[in-house]
Amino acid sequence: MIKATVAAKKRKEDLKMLMIDTSNMDNDVKSWCVEQRAMILAESRAPPATQLTTTTPQATSTPAATATSSATLEEDPSTPVDDLAL
Predict the structure, then answer these.
(1) Ranges of Low complexity compositional bias (predicted)?
(2) Tally of CA atoms within 13 A in the half-sphere of 8 that contains its CB
């Protein structure tokens, strides 16, 4: 959330810099403003940096031992429940 706030503040400051009126400025200040505008515009035209994200796969299937043990009990109804070791 802090990164979003910093990014919003930078966009706001950049917009102010782009909208500033340089007609009544000294030549030194005016040239600095023009350079800043050029840097802001170059940053906005550049492609965004790609972020490297790592994701861990999540297990979505059930273990095979659980699936076969429940299937075996259902298929063979002659197995007494008392003999099964839990």
Answers:
(1) 46-72
(2) 5
Is 39 a member of any domain? yes
Residue 43 predicted with pLDDT over 60: yes
Mean pLDDT of 5-26: 91
- Domain extent, residue 2, equals 1-47
By three-state DSSP, how is residue 59 classified?
coil
Domain assignment present for 78: no
pTM exceeding 0.85? no
Residue 64 to residue 10: CA distance in whole angstroms: 54
Nearest-angstrom CA–CA distance, 20 and 2: 27
